[in-house]
Give the backbone structure.
Amino acid sequence: MTEKEYKHEVVRPNEKLPVWVWMHNSNFNYSSYIAPHWHQSIELSYTLTGEIDEFIIEGQNYHCEPGKILVVNSQEIHSIKVFKNGIDKRALSVIFTYKFVKEMYPMIDNMVFSLNNYSKLTDGQKYKYKKLQKLLQQVATIYAEKENEYKNISISVKLLEILEILIKNFMIEAKCKSTKEVRIVERTQAIIEYIQKNYQEELSLENIARYHHVSKEYLARFFKKYIGITIGQYIAEIRAKHAYDDIVTGKHNLTEIALNNGFSGIRTMDRALIRIYGRKASELKKVN
């Protein structure tokens, strides 16, 4: 699988760093959810404080406590859910673009990183895992500094060391997928991409099925089996995520936000927001 063969989400690197770095920081007095998605890049997640209740990668559910490292390989479908409990939760995301990794290590094609199941690591890998924990903690500490003229240099050096450890110690040959498995991946990604591009429009099981040249019955079964939720739930969750972003920026009134994000009105938007964030739009607006 190469970047030329598939369309995918665009992950833009930080303009001053060779990779994309982001700190997730919230007290989570309400639930938080990132719907199933995928990208060509390679993503590292490091839990700093609190817990991530459900981090699902290719159907495998991981519960993340402080110190847990997860890697999402290129084109793997993943989602995240954090339940409300009022505990401060912080996590660091580091995303290496596939192009950057390939430039650093040209033999990356047909290889994957494997470190998510800590109990299956060798003693040598566990030692390197601890080194990764230390480096990721240092990245998080430096990232949070406001006055540091060497900040970008320091982070870049540590990110390159992280990548070196991953390649030397946790890289294995990717399992060869059967023709059926490849088709499942392609179809799943195509459906997700279509919904994410058209969530503001009127979407139904029937018109999505027609676009992908399958029956609506087949599409419903397929999506539920491989994504774990219904098409209707996924559409509502994508719309709710975008609506939430609009609510916290405060650029539009709630009716405009609902209509701009594909909802029929505030009531339907509120139902989706409550399922994911535990609060309706007016309450989220007050909090933010």
